[in-house]
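Posting for a labmate who doesn't have an account.
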Amino acid sequence: MFLVFPPAAVVIAWSGEIYYLVGATVKTFPKSAKIVMTVMTALLLVALASDEEAFQGFAGLVLIGGAIGLSLRK
């Protein structure tokens, strides 16, 4: 699951705009959000390739925290 969905999200993000709804207004995520998603995905893939459980846990927390941060964006 981690090898398919995060890279797919990054490919989709860089292939066009990401839209979200705020009230009745449609907005787009800025380029900085795409960069954050790319860095989080790269960190996750590196962590999955490593043998250290602490690094894998840290990467999981970064992924979850980033997803929560992007969802709380106004």
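Reply:
Got it, the structure tokens are right above this. The mean pLDDT is 79.
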